[in-house]
Amino acid sequence: MMKKRKPALWIACGLAALALVTGGILLLTRGNGGEAHEGGIRLLLDGAEMTETVRDPEGGDGLRVIVTVDGNEAANLPFGMEHTLQVIQDSGRNTVRITKDAVYMEEADCHGQDCVKMEPVTRDNLEMRVMGGFIICLPHRVSVEVRGK
After folding, report:
1. DSSP symbol at 117
2. In sequence order, what are the beta bridge partners of 54?
3. What pTM did the predictor assign?
4. Which residues share a beta bridge with 72?
5. How far apart are CA 113 and CA 103, in angstroms?
């Protein structure tokens, strides 16, 4: 008679494997060693253009939303504070939306729209999502990660 395996163990193993695969994908898609694209990257936070990495040290409950573009941190914002971040590159455009309850890719002009179709990251599903706290746009090399306490 076969023993029943615990579902929590399967979930933990699946998440660990997914984290390794995601890390590998991010490393492989860094392209030119982490340098910004030739044409540069424009960031618009709530409609205002940012000239450097966007960092907001205030607010939130310990969870942070880290947006990377081509392997470089572009924004580090508190989870739960309303923001819209637009990432504009030569290769395309992504819009990340942060609400009081969730983070999601609101829109992107990439082929396939996989990043837009991904389930929003919330406090409640952060540990249970297949992709963990990540939302990834491979064509534009943009990743959004929710991490922290």
Report:
1. H
2. 75
3. 0.70
4. 69
5. 16
